[in-house]
Amino acid sequence: MHPMLKPALRRAWRDRATVQFGITPAQAVVLAPVDPATGHFLDMLDGTQGLPLLYERARALDLPPAQVDALLTRLTAAGVVDDPTAGGPEAEALRSRTGAHERLRPDLASLSLLHPGPGDAAKTLAARRAIRVQVRGAGRVGAAIAAVLSGSGVGRVDVLDGGVTQPGDVTPGGLPGQAVGERRAAAAAQLVRRAAPGGPPRHQRDGEQPGLSLIVVAPREALDVHAPNAMDAEDWIRAGIPHLYAGVVETTGVVGPLVLPGGTGCAGCLALGRTERDPGWPRLLAQWRSGRQRTAVPACDLSLATAVAGLAAAHALAFLDGDLPTSTGSRWEASLPRLDWRSAPIEPHRDCFCGAAGNTRGEQASGAAGPHDTMVR
């Protein structure tokens, strides 16, 4: 082990005997009492020295090995200590790819705060390389989501869309101006490759196809954001593929639901629930879906689309890393100009084929823990 105080946690003295690691209430850890010798020893925890050398240097400060072990145990339990050599073979392989590792160091620092065990962050980041995600839609929202997922280390990001890139598809974080006139799918594939920190994993270069871990549905058609196609969802649910919806309709941004097949409400549940609450809904939907009702240029504010893409990508990454974000079984919406994000659960419907009704899976996902201080004494 090569103990290292996590660089992402800034250290400061609250008084002469109390050290605080971290700035925000969500991460702040307080260690007390700290004598001068222990304070000097903390400066040695930079990840460059193994335990035998640390024991030797601690003796010079009159700190016996047992006291060093007790201190490291307390700091590790509080999530303050990392190990830059830990994480397993996949993490070591990532570290050996210097360029990719340097690109991902800010992500690694963030993950070290979310996955507190030594080496857990490196292991989590390395695991993304074996993941395959499909993004359906290469407009202002979908292309940016694909770029963020690829840039965050997801090994394979496939983008599906039709038609050619229009000037209105161009965004700072998505398709570039030179892509206008190109096929959207081809332009998005180039965007994903440019965003990736390093080349594709070996198994992908050899032509192997890992299974889909997630589908992100980011349609350019506003109505498909507001009322997602339940027929598409049937295929994904039967295949057991989790899927997340995101997009912009008029002046409202939408993220969610993240659907866990058979466990949380799906697009079919959403449609059935709306019809139950509003019997006129199917008639309205049929009129809106008719060719005569389509607008030539749908409303899609650039800043709102960028916010939606960022939030959707964050929810997707949280899920891919093993957590259940608050979009699980829920839909987050925010409207211009106030942008007050609000969440509404998508209740499983008893008549939906998905079978989620009565299943409590993912029910607690919306109860995210709030900020807290962790005290270590």
Provide structural commentary.
With 377 residues, the chain is an alpha/beta fold. It has 3 domains: 4-84, Outer Surface Protein A, domain 3 (Alpha-Beta Complex); 89-125, no CATH class; 131-366, Rossmann fold (3-Layer(aba) Sandwich), CATH 3.40.50. The chain has 15 helices and 13 strands. The strands form 3 sheets. The protein has a 7-stranded mixed β-sheet with strand order 7-6-8-9-10-11-12. A 4-stranded mixed β-sheet has the order 2-3-4-13, with no helix packed on it. Strands 1-5 form a two-stranded antiparallel ribbon. A hairpin with a 2-residue loop joins strand 2 (11-15) and strand 3 (18-21). Helix 4 (89-96) crosses helix 7 (120-127) and helix 8 crosses helix 15. The radius of gyration is 24 Å and the shape is elongated. The two termini are 24 Å apart.
Describe the structure using short key phrases.
377 residues; disordered C terminus; 3 domains; four-stranded mixed beta sheet; alpha/beta; Outer Surface Protein A, domain 3; seven-stranded mixed beta sheet
